[in-house]
Specification:
3-stranded antiparallel β-sheet; 27% helix; alpha/beta; single chain; 28% strand; Rossmann fold
Length: 246
């Protein structure tokens, strides 16, 4: 089975977030980048497990400039066979999905797996857009995946219950918690990643659909008032006069 795994470069959650150019651009100075966790922990690792169990090739793909290569190498070190980088900024969800779809149309992939969402924008849009643009079925969220021949059996946790679906390949799915366990690259994988190919593809003529007018940080957290546990009257008073329902 030939599997295409979509990965995204995202800021580490410990990074300090700031903006430049009148709050219209993300300030990348001093930011540490990582592979988006659900792309790495769930989508990529499950793809590798499927390859190990039944053969095939796992290719990773991302949209980004040369500065995303270290993140690509991390994914290769985990075990992906090769990588594709669409040589362009990731302008918005549609732009990213369209670039990946255009590439996928030229190849013979059986399965495309994305993480369920990125930790920077949390849009959960790219997988569904890829499926629509290619004309494949799409299932999300996917917490478990088994493949028998060309049939995928998928379990999804939905509204407190478990939904079990079967669908033939080719198929696009988004991977969520439960799909696989995170892997740590070993030294052999790290060394092998240095020589694995990264194919750089120039972007297709696609227009982004979103324009960023301004970014705004959430309000700074206010100070915390400590109330003596014996002073319940004061607590009740503050709940009536100062507490806000969010």
């Amino acid at each position: 089975m030939n599997i295409l795994v979509c990965i995204s470069q995202v800021p580490d959650t410990t990074s300090k977030i700031a903006f430049t150019d009148g709050n219209t651009k993300f300030d990348t100075n001093g930011v540490q980048y990582i592979v988006n966790p659900s792309d790495e922990w769930y989508a990529l690792v499950r793809a590798l497990e499927l390859k190990e169990g039944g053969g095939g090739i796992v290719t990773i793909i991302t949209v980004g400039n040369a500065d995303v290569d270290p993140v690509i190498r991390k994914a290769l070190a985990i075990g992906a066979d090769d990588a594709v980088r669409i040589n362009s900024d990731a302008k918005d969800s549609y732009y990213v999905a369209a670039q990946i779809a255009e590439y996928a149309k030229t190849k013979s992939f059986d399965l495309i797996i994305t993480g369920n969402q990125t930790i920077d924008f949390n849009n959960a849009e790219v997988g569904g857009m890829i499926a629509e643009l290619i004309g494949w079925d799409y299932i999300t969220p996917c917490n478990k995946l088994e493949v028998n021949g060309n049939v995928c059996k998928i379990e999804s946790e939905v509204a407190g219950s478990t939904r079990v679906l079967e669908a033939p390949t080719p198929l696009v799915i988004s991977a969520a918690k439960g799909m696989a366990e995170a892997r740590i690259p070993n030294m052999r994988g790290i060394m092998a990643a240095r020589t694995k190919p990264i194919t750089v593809v120039e972007p297709a003529a696609v227009s982004p659909q979103v324009k960023i007018n301004v970014f705004e940080l959430p309000p700074a957290k206010a100070g915390v008032k400590m109330i003596d546990p014996e002073n319940m009257d004061e607590l009740v008073k503050l709940l009536h006069t100062e507490a806000k329902v969010i």
